[in-house]
Amino acid sequence: MNTPPSILDYSRYADTPFYAYTTEQMITTVRTRTEQI
User: Fold this and answer.
1) ∠ at Cα 32 (21, 1), nearest 5°?
2) What share of the chain is helix, strand, coil (3-state, %, to 5)?
3) How far, rounded to the nearest angstrom, does the alpha carbon of residue 35 sit from its chain's CA centroid?
4) Does the reported pTM lie above 0.90?
């Protein structure tokens, strides 16, 4: 499973692991990336 760089960058910046994201945030991120393709 590849983690979007944006999540890695944000998690590193916020000092928060990407798995700390809420389900809603993950869904929003996935939808945004899907629409960009």
Assistant:
1) 60
2) 75, 0, 25
3) 15
4) no
